[in-house]
Amino acid sequence: MNKIIFSNCALAVCGVLLGGCNSAFAQHAPLSGNTKAPIDEPPIVVRERTEFVNLTVTVTDRSGRAISGLAAQDIEVYEDKVKQKIEHYGAEDAPISVGVVFDVSGSMRNKIEQARDAIKAFVETSHADDVFFLVGFNRRSDLLAEFCDGEALQRSLTMVAAQGETALYDAVLLGAEKVRQGQHSKRALLVISDGQDNASQYTVDQLRQRLKESDVQIYCVGIGRPGSSEKAAQRQEMRGQMILDGIARLSGGRAFFVNSASELAEATTLVALELRHQYSLGYMPTNQRRDGKWRKIRVRVNRSARTPELTVRARDGYYAATSP
Question: DSSP label at 8?
Fold first, then answer.
């Protein structure tokens, strides 16, 4: 098996309403390198109610494989260092709403076929009832396919061509807003890109703040550029990896960095498997103040001497509701 470099991040997802399974090509201008997508208003952020907190938790072993079979008593949740009582627990393989955020900038020209194959592997490993939509981005970001099944998503991928610069931050924000309309109560984004942002209207700091106020999990798969000996190019790639890792970590997801087609397909398959082996938890926080402040969350698994070393990932926290 090829080695994939990945980072351990956190995970949490939810959703609202199902859209139709129609490609958006008839309603949107094709992606081009000449215009920038207008963003008239910032995304609307809906902060969850303080009274009940829902979490999606992922537990993995040293190799990054998802661990199933844990009971509610095996998991502990702390909010601002205070242990919470878990009142809801589930470990079923439930369908989710997924947005694929796909880099079609010019630097992806020689990698787009491999990326399509990797998305196919992701779809084939996903739950049969998952619903998907597609955001493509180069200098601008566009919704290219509405919520649909996996086959329709793959058909939409054949209609894109790589060109132009990279508006990664705008595309992630568009996906994070769109996925809120999904039918299923679990939701996530899969971001596939090989480059750093050089065309977004939003800054990385603005993106981070929006994601911190949101509850969308994001998985990032960064495609490397092996063979480059230029220090400037290497620094740029390292910065891009740090940004992708930060986006994933902040949102509760996970970042992978790959250098070949086989590693790319393996990474997307791991994402799909992980999404199907998660734990759903809910608790009533002991702190019921409606002060709008950030609440730090930590989740841990009770281990015995015979339990292998495990990594537990859940979102870092949430903003409490404010008083009317």
Answer: -
